[in-house]
Specification:
mainly alpha, Exo70_C, 21 helices, Cullin_repeat-like_dom_sf
């Protein structure tokens, strides 16, 4: 086992700690001394650096000045280079401008843009001493450039602006509206078909012609744009208007459009004028749906982005052509009214209504207001003239003073004319309803048309009653009225007028026809039937004998002969006269013959059966009994045939 180490005694530990404290104190004193020396050395460095900085300051100033001088030189050189580049570009632009735009139009336009850029540059750089002179020279050059540009615009537009030939226009029409031949005259349909054309044309597809090649339009657009930017808007408008308006009018002229005044219209014979109206309707469609539509497309493309010119140019170009077309319609609307003009007026009103929305679309904008107003004004004038002509017709029917009576009592020409007129009117039902609404807003257009039609029918009936009084024979008066009113009823029943006038009107007038038929029988046959009466033939007791089946006792042979003689004369006279009369409707004619036969033949058979024996037993019985009942029936079959 090892010997344990004992700790030092307390006195020894205290000595160790004291020694360590002394060592530490000495170290601190040494560090302080070193620090003081370092501070002294650093202070010496600071003094030396300050002296060095003072000595270096002039050098630094010179160096900074040199650096700034270099920078200024660089800036000046760069500025000089920019100006020199501008001069180079100006010289290049000037050379191209002096050569003109014809060889290289796009390069010419680029040169103008470069010139404008240079003007802006030198205007904003007044530090360059000669900038004012450069700007002045550039402006003079730009003015010359724009002047050449105007000439190029005019030349290019003129060279590609040609009238559209009629054949080419016809190819753009729907098949249903193309003329049978290529001549302008054949483009006008028969006026009687104009209403049908209107219905066909309203929803048809039209293909407006290309007026200027698509490859040329962008160039013209750039030219116009540069002219406007140069402040030459008015010159651009004038060039475009003068060139395109002349071409448009020439296209219409080749088509056959002519400008006619009211006086010109009054001098033209109706047949010729009617054809001209038909062609005018056709021309209006071609002008609006093809030529004006194509012209609007050219304007919109050429002046895209130049809103101030779009509408104004279109308005100026089309102004003369629109005036030429509308002047004819205006002349017709203001010309002397006559019944036969009503249908062409309605045709003209229809085409203006058909084109109304397209005119509003094409001629939109403030610049086109005058054209829109002119078209609307013509539509209203046509409507008013048609309405007044309608009123004139009603009055003319009632007051028709034709003295020439129809000798055979047939349908009067006035009746067939009026009925055909009314039938034609019903082809224009929708147009007439629209026309009535122009003047009487809110009223039922159906009831207005029915009212007008009834008034015309009543006016006709009143006139016919007056004409019937020209006949000396009352029976012919009744036959005449029966024929004419029956014609009215039959025509109404077979047309759309029936739905408008109603069954009540038809039934009422059928009763009038029957009344005149009955009155005819009384006036024509009462006298001859009296010859077959037993009154005055028998004695006072003979009346009762007459009912015993043929007993002629009490009858005077002489009276019987006299009655038969009178009957023969009267029947032959009736046959001769009434076989010249006419009942044109076969059904009515047969029913009237049957009605006469049902009265005459039984009376004749009865008379011959009862009193014929008195004659047959005498001399020459055939002198008195000339006809059998079958003979009379056969001869009645010759009545109302209009034989001469």
């Amino acid at each position: 086992m090892g010997v344990p180490i004992l700790p030092p005694p307390p006195a020894t530990m205290a000595d160790n700690l004291s020694d360590k404290a002394v060592v530490m104190r000495e170290s601190l004193l040494k560090s302080q001394s070193i620090a003081d020396k370092m501070v002294s050395i650093l202070g010496s460095f600071d003094h030396r650096l300050s002296a060095l900085e003072t000595a270096m300051r002039p050098t630094q100033i010179r160096t900074h000045a040199i650096r700034r001088a270099h920078e200024n030189i660089d800036k000046t050189l760069k500025a000089a280079n920019v100006i020199l580049d501008r001069f180079d570009l100006s010289r290049e632009a000037e050379a191209k401008i002096l050569r003109g735009p014809h060889e290289d139009l796009e390069g010419y336009l680029d040169s103008i843009e470069q010139l404008r850029s240079n003007i802006r540059f030198f205007t904003n750089n007044k530090t360059f001493k000669s900038s004012d002179g450069v700007v002045s020279h550039a402006n003079n050059l730009l003015s010359k450039a724009i002047s050449k540009l105007e000439h190029e615009f005019k030349q290019l537009l003129s060279s590609y602006s040609k009238p559209v030939e009629p054949d080419r226009l016809y190819e753009c029409l729907p098949n249903s509206l193309r003329p049978s031949s290529g001549s302008p005259e054949s483009s006008g349909k028969n006026p009687s078909n104009s209403h049908t054309d209107h219905i066909t044309a309203e929803n048809a597809v039209y293909n407006p012609p290309v007026l200027i090649p698509p490859r040329v339009l962008p160039l013209l657009h750039y030219l116009a744009q540069h002219m406007v930017q140069a402040g030459h808007t008015q010159q651009c408008l004038i060039i475009y208007r003068d060139t395109r308006s002349q071409v448009l009018q020439e296209s219409l002229h080749q088509l056959g459009v002519e400008k006619l005044s009211k006086d010109d219209v009054q001098k033209i014979q109706w047949e010729v004028l009617e054809l001209k109206i038909g062609t005018w309707i056709h021309f209006m469609r071609i002008a609006v749906k093809l030529l004006f539509a194509a012209e609007r497309k050219v304007c919109d493309q050429m002046f895209e982005g130049i809103e101030s010119l779009k509408d104004q140019c279109f308005a100026e170009v089309t102004k003369g052509s629109v005036a030429m077309l509308l002047s004819f319609g205006d002349a017709i609307a203001k010309s002397k009214r006559s019944p036969e003009k009503l249908f062409v007026l309605l045709d003209m009103y229809e085409i203006m209504r058909e084109l109304h929305s397209e005119i509003g679309t094409l001629f939109s904008g403030k610049a086109c207001k005058e054209t829109r107003d002119a078209a609307l004004g013509l539509t209203k004038r046509l409507a008013l003239t048609a309405k007044e002509t309608f009123g004139d017709f009603e009055e003319a029917v009632e007051k028709d003073a034709t003295k020439t009576a129809v000798a055979d009592g047939t349908v009067h020409p006035l009746t067939s004319y009026v009925i055909n007129y009314v039938k034609f009117l019903f082809d224009y039902q929708s147009t007439l309803k629209q026309l009535f609404q122009e003047f009487e807003k809110g009223d039922d257009s159906n009831s207005q048309l029915a009212s007008v039609t009834m008034r015309i029918m009543q006016a006709l009936q009143t006139n016919l009653e007056g004409k019937s009084k020209q006949y000396k024979d009352p029976a012919l008066t009744n036959l005449f009225l029966m024929n004419n009113i029956h014609y009215m009823v039959r025509s109404v029943r077979r047309s759309e007028a029936k739905d408008l006038l109603g069954d009540d009107w038809v039934q009422r007038h059928r009763r009038i026809v029957q009344q005149h038929a009955n009155q005819y029988k009384r006036n024509a046959w009462t006298k001859i039937l009296q010859c077959l009466s037993i009154q005055g033939l028998t004695s006072s007791g003979g009346g009762s004998a007459g009912g015993d089946g043929g007993n002629s006792s009490g009858a005077s042979r002489a009276l019987v002969k006299d009655r038969l003689k009178i009957f023969n004369l009267q029947f032959e006279e009736l046959h001769q006269r009434q076989s010249q009369w006419t009942v044109p409707d076969s059904e009515l004619r047969e029913s009237l013959r049957l009605a006469v036969a049902e009265v005459l033949l039984p009376a004749y058979r009865s008379f011959i059966k009862r009193f014929g024996v008195l004659v047959e037993n005498g001399k020459t019985p055939h002198k008195y009994i000339r006809y059998t009942a079958d003979d009379l029936d056969r001869m009645l079959g010759e009545f109302f045939e209009g034989k001469t």
